[in-house]
């Protein structure tokens, strides 16, 4: 790179955003720009940029995906990640997953003035670092006050019991349709639900295959309240009245508390899932590392400006999406416009 090209690169990055428009890279191939302005970039970044003869920024970083074009640029904003205390990873990972949902955190701050969850949400929004989750855990009762590992899903359930705002954001209805195969009487049952449990029955799955498994027809032999005959009934589960977010819990443990090994959740970070005629995509997740629900370690993966960050108690680092969605346990999907 000659000196005059290098001087061109000193233009404010925000000015470059203005001229060049959005990145041409796909989500998987974003190059490593993490600052909204060009100037604060360290020099070892700047030497990987060039302006070509038609005024385009040439990104000389190697693309992550070698099939992608390497002529691209990107301006990221809002990559600040708040860290939460090092005491209880299950609570930290849960809070990171929830607070990364913009609509939820806005609802929490607007609607619930006095709860410990709202206080923490306000601190998160004002980018206080690190955050302390202990007052919140205390407010949820004795169970979460011990220095002992807990299940992240139980913790989120406890949060739901204390927060109507959180309930309103995650609420949906489970509909079970039971049809007697003798008299064809149909019974429909609707129940409100907040965390959708998806059974993992194979090692290689996708979000769509898990959801299809959940909603596939099963045959039960029960007594019909209409024709009074004990015989086959078809049962189908469905999800309706979904809102801005869907929270999913993967059922990785069997009744003997044995964890399923080597589960590969393929293409999770790029999959769109159609539920209730709306499209949803992942915005954050909780990972569980280890064997037992009560002894492992929890971290979270959160998406900011199309980059993934791994939050691990008091640290957060930019990271590539883990291959096969390794260790994913819970996730929040956001409705796409
Ligand atoms: Zn019947």
Task: Give a brief rundown of this model.
This protein has helices at residues 3-8, 13-20, 43-46, 89-99, 102-111, 116-125, 134-139, 152-162, 164-170, 207-215, and strands spanning 49-51, 57-59, 172-180, 186-193, 195-199, 204-205, 218-223, 230-240, 245-251, 264-265, 273-275, 278-289, 297-304, 307-312, 315-318, 328-335.
Explain this structure to me?
The chain is built from ten helices and 16 strands. A hairpin with a 5-residue loop joins strand 1 (about 50) and strand 2. Strands 5, 9, 11, 12, 13, 14, 15 and 16 form an eight-stranded mixed beta sheet that branches. It has helices spanning about 5-10, 15-20, 45, 90-100, 100-110, 115-125, 135-140, 150-160, 165-170, 205-215, and strands at about 50, 55-60, 170-180, 185-195, 195-200, 205, 220-225, 230-240, 245-250, 265, 275, 280-290, 295-305, 305-310, 315-320, 330-335. Residues about 1-40, about 50-55, about 60-65 and about 70-80 have low confidence and may be disordered. It is of the alpha+beta class and about 325 residues long. The site of zinc ion has 8 residues, from loops. The site of zinc ion (ZN) has 8 residues, from loops.
């Amino acid at each position: 790179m000659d000196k005059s090209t290098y001087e061109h690169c000193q233009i404010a990055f925000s000015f470059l955003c203005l001229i060049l428009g959005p990145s041409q890279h796909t989500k998987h191939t974003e190059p490593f720009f993490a600052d909204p302005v060009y100037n604060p970039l360290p020099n070892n970044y700047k030497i990987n940029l060039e302006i070509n003869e038609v005024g385009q920024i040439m990104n000389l970083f190697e693309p992550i995906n070698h099939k992608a074009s390497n002529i691209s640029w990107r301006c990221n904003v809002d990559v600040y990640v708040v860290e939460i205390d090092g005491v209880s990873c299950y609570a930290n990972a849960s809070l990171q997953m929830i607070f990364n949902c913009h609509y939820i955190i806005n609802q929490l701050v607007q609607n619930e003035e006095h709860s410990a969850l709202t206080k923490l949400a306000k601190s998160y929004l004002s980018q206080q670092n690190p955050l302390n989750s202990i007052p919140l855990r205390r407010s949820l009762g004795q169970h979460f006050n011990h220095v002992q590992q807990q299940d992240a899903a139980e913790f989120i359930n406890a949060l739901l019991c204390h927060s109507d705002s959180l309930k309103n954001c995650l609420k949906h209805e489970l509909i079970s349709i039971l049809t007697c195969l003798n008299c064809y009487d149909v019974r429909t049952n609707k129940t409100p639900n907040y965390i959708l449990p998806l059974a993992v029955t194979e090692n290689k799955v996708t979000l769509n295959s898990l959801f299809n498994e959940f909603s596939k027809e099963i045959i039960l032999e029960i007594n019909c309240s209409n024709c009074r005959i004990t015989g086959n009934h078809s049962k189908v589960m469905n999800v309706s009245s979904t809102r801005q977010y869907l929270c999913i819990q993967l059922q990785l443990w069997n009744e003997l508390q044995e964890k399923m090994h080597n589960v590969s959740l393929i293409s999770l970070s790029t999959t769109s899932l159609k539920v209730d005629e709306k499209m949803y995509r992942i915005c954050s997740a909780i990972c569980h590392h280890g064997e037992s629900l009560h002894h492992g370690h929890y971290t979270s993966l959160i998406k900011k400006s199309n980059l993934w960050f791994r939050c691990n108690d008091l640290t957060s680092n930019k990271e590539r999406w883990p291959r096969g969605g390794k260790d994913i346990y819970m996730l929040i999907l956001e409705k796409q416009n």
